[in-house]
Structure formats: C-alpha cells, structure tokens
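LOG
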Amino acid sequence: MSRYLFTSESVSMGHPDKVADQISDAILDHCLKADPTSRVACETMVTTDLAIVSGEVTTKADLSEKTIDQIIRATIKEIGYTDPNIGFAADSCKVISHMHTQSPDIAMGVDLGGAGDQGMMFGFACKETKALMPLPIYLAHRLIENHANMRQSGELKFVRPDAKSQVTVEYDADGTPHRIHTVVLSTQHDESVMAKKNGKDYFSDDARQVIIDKLIIPTLKKEWPDLVKGDFTMVKPGSSPGDINDDHIRCHVNPTGCFLTGGPHGDCGLTGRKIIVDTYGGRGRHGGGAFSGKDPTKVDRSAAYMARYIAKNIVAADLASECEVQLSYAIGYPDPLNIWVNTNGTSNFSNEHLVDLIRKTFKLTPQGIIESLNLRRPIYRETARHGHFGRDMITFTWEKTDKADALRRAAGTPAMAAR
C-alpha cells in the first residue's frame, strides 16, 4: 500500500463561528462563577454590527440586560474586534439578548442526576503527538494559536482576527506520519498589504512570504522538525499544481487572492458550527452535539470530555497506541446506555476487556463525570478557541493521564506495550 494524505483544519478566535462560541461560553462562565449549579444552554449569532444571544438559563447569577451586554462586548473586544470600520466592533455593534429558564421537563430528570440530553459522544487519542492528538489537527491549532499571539503582540501588524489554517500530513502505509505535505493559511488583513495586479487589488506576495517565514515555518519546525522535509514553497493564486516540485511543502496563503472583508461582517457566525475543529479534525468520529454554551449536565459536552479522558488514559497506559471511545445516554437517565471501544488493531486486549476496564476505572454517570473532571468551574471560555483537546492539563482536566496506572493494574500488567 502506498502513502496517503490526511487533512485537518482549525479556525481562529476571530472566525465568526468561534466569536459566537466564545460569547456563549463567556456567559456560561459568568453563570458558573456566581452559581456552580447553573443550568445553561446559550446560543449566539453574530453578523454585521449585531450580536444576538438567546437560550435557556436557570441560575442565581445576574443576567440583567446590562450585565449580558457588558459580557458580550468585553468578549468581542478581547478577541480583537475594536474597529467599527470593518463592520463589527465591540463598542458599536448592536446587542440583543433573550433568555428564559430551563424547561421543567428537562430539569425533572437532571435534578435526580440524569443526563441533560440524549445522544452519543466520542473520544479519541493516538500516539502521533505528545498530547496524544492526531497530528494534522494539532498542527492546525498551533498555527492559529501562534497567528493570534503574533497579531496581539504586533509582530504581524497587518493581520486581523479572522483566520483559518489547514494542514495535510503524508502518512506511511502503516499510519506513521512521514512528512508535512501542504499548509493552507487564510488570514483577514488590512489595506497596507494590498498590491495592484491587472488593475485589481490583491494580497501581496511579499505579505504571503512574511506569513510563511514568520508564522508557518517556525511553528512547524518547533512542533515537529523531523517531518519538515523539503523547502517551503509559496503556491500563488491561479498557479498550477504542477508548478511545485513534489518534494516541496506547498504553502497556500490567502489562496483566493484577498481577504479584506472578514469576521462577522464577512460571514454570519453561529454557536456550535465548528464541532470538527473543536474535536479531532475528522480523524475520530463526532456524535453531532456541539459543546459551547452548555453547562456540564449536558452530556453533549461533559461526556465528550470524559470519552477523551478515557481514550487518552488507555493510550497513555500503553494498552493501545490508538483508541476511540463512544458513550451514549438517554435524557434523565444516569448510566450510559452503552460503552464502545475501538483500538484499530493496536491493542493486545479485546475491546470487550477494555470496556470492562473502563467500567471499573471511570465514573460515567453525569454526576460522576462532573465530579471526576471538576467541571462546575468557569473554565469554558478558553475551550472555545484553539481546540477543546490536546491542551493545558491543569485547566482541561480531561487531558490528564492520572488513570493510566490504575488501568495498567486493572489489566494485570505494569506496562503492556501496544503492538
């Protein structure tokens, strides 16, 4: 079997859908800070000069119109939208808020410890990176994270908050990463880097090279230098794929030719529309439920975090080199309806045995998940940018590998090497 390619993308904190996610999670954090038992299901829409927030919220926190307005504007300002001339800014946009209490029909089951919704959730981990994340999504996140850092520090003065990255990795037939094949980086920019071409204004090639030299090359060489094989080569808009040598790393920077209009002014943003960016970049399955704006009684969020926690600890325990876990729940019912495991042939244990180990090692009721991962804290705004997985283990408790030893002991081996 020959080598193959796999691609994942990430989007910046200034992407309109991520703006919506961060607003929803900022409101969730505000509620949890004042009242850890808050029930929150908050949805946001952003578009030209407008932010709309609605949802079902039961909390002791202040949800006055003035307070919600302040939270929304502070979030937009921190993201970097402060210039009203680009169609969306913290101080000038209109804010509309409409919230009411959670349905008593839902509360009836949740109050007794049941799940806040039905559904199936997936978690994934593999040994491609130290964070036990798939390499393409991990690299795509780091590019966007560094884009934000360089924008905020002023090192890249011409970029604006809206951006997307995409990384294609070439794999050997056995699934081992061989090299970084292609990088796409689209970033909103200001007028200072425009150049005339055939009488039209375009993003200049000089600015493209700055993005390659200052952002793309340093990020990829820092994260995984062994996979940087070949020269980084700019692919100019309109050029043919045959113009680039096969052994070069193709870099598409603003491939449409211009990205002057962006953010919520360029595209309407909605909470929960970037669920694959939030998880594993398409490498692992997704149950379909979004995360942002939901308190931890909503298993769409908390059980997805638990599934990642389980998968990561199984891989960290050397019980498999790749692991995918599914949990499913019925609304109002506490115990998972099923636990499913797939290691893609990388474990010496049967899937059934791993399921038995999971039941013995992890608390899987909604209350058990909340307690195990300490989820009633105002930590969620930070999850809404740069990915929910593969990051800080102190704040993101589902990234800890503190159950690896217990899994090894339960498996009856101090360190079972995966095949």
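LOG (cont.) second protein
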Amino acid sequence: MKIGLALGGGGARGLAHIPMLEAFDELGLKPAVIAGCSMGAVVGAAYAGGMSAVEIREHALRLLSNKMEMARHVFSAKQARIGDIFSLKGLTSLHLDGQKLADIALPDHLPQLVEDQKIPLKLVTVDFERMEEVVLTSGSILEAVGASIAIPGLIAAPRINGRIHVDGGVKNPVPFNHVTEGMDLVVAIDVTGKPKAISRAHPSNIELAVGSLLIMFNELAELRRLQTPPDIYISPEINGFGPGDFFKVKDIFAAAEKSKDQLKRELELRVNALA
C-alpha cells in the first residue's frame, strides 16, 4: 500500500508530528512520500532521512528538555556563535537565520540533499516576490528546510536561486495536495491550531504577529480540506501551547497521545479495508 503523508506547520506545535510518526512505525507502515511545511518540514526531513520516530523523539527531548542542554548543543557540537544564528539585515531587521536553525535541529548524519532522502520528500515554501508556492525536491536539505520555516519578520530564509522565500504555510499550511498522485491513501496532520489565549494585558508584537499568521493558516487549511479532502485528517489537541513553546516538548508529546491513538485506529481500518 502506498501512503502519502503531509505534515503541516505550527511552530512548536509541530512537535506533535513525532507521536503521529510513531503510529506509523508501531503499525509497521512507511509513507511512500512525505510533504512538509515549516515545522513539518523539519520533522519530515528527519523521518525521510532515515530516523525512526522514537529516535526523533529522543533527539527532540535531548535538545529541548532544558535550555542549558540546547545551549551546549548549539555552541559546542555545532560550533555555532550567536552571530551565526542571528542575522542583522538593517537597523530594524534582526532575524533568526533559517538555515542555521535547520542545521541545529537536524542531526549531522542525515542525507544532505533532498533527493537523497530514504523516503521521497517534498518541502514547501513560497517565493515571496512572485507570490508562488515552491515545492523543493532537490538541493541542500538545510537550505530547503530553512526556506520552509522562514516565518516572515522572524526567521530569514536562505536565498534559493537568488530569490527570497518565506514559510510555506503562507499559501499551503498542510500540503496534502502534493502527496496524492499514485497513492492508495493520503494522510494529513494539521498542527496549526488556534492562537493561544493571551493572559497578559499587553501581548507582545511577536505573539500578535504569529497568532495572526495562525488565523490565516487555519482558514487556508480548512478551505483546501473542503475542496479536496484527504482520506485521513488529524488535528492534535495542542491549542494550549504556543508556537514558541519548544521547551514544553514533553507536555506536547503527552497532549498528542490521544490523536496518535486515533491515527492508529484510522490507519488500521483503512489498511484492512484496502487489503
């Protein structure tokens, strides 16, 4: 059976993709193709590169269980400097470097080219000036992931073929339309969620900007789903977490367990029906 899998964007909420991949592994299933957007591109690249879901979970826990461990990883194993991670494009333009973030997130042993992944991989980004969705299937994995996670105003993407790219969620937050051709079953995981409730009287500019993007992502994802619904569509219950809550990784994993069980049940039903 050929299964197409789409992993959507949602910042730290995208850590919920990892339990969903565990459902595949525990059932002995492997996607025939993966499309990833934003955080789905990060997790999808690790899985397509040959890591098991449990290995990705362990890697995420090592990096994100505490801030000191993350700092040790970044500034020792990766030999990075603060100036490498932040890029100053002008007095009013301080960005995180998307390609450096991808390098920090992905283990060094993974294939370095998109076309060399063990599972065919499609990474979704957007050409900013042309306003066109771009699906990357070749070239540097770090460049491609860096482009897919480039949240406007926060994370700067590497230029690809001389062109500026931004987060693929701007046009296609759950890119299941790219994993339909020739597939028996299409599975989409939507981790956009709703904006997290803001308890403070004065929310930060980042909270408002990212929350507004999530509103747009939700609308786009729902419209695409209504037009051409995939066979299985799972939205983990992670609205209680913000897109920046990476250090709540254990809680996000726990919150996603119910949806993991749901995905396993639906996969089993579909696979048995098609057998």
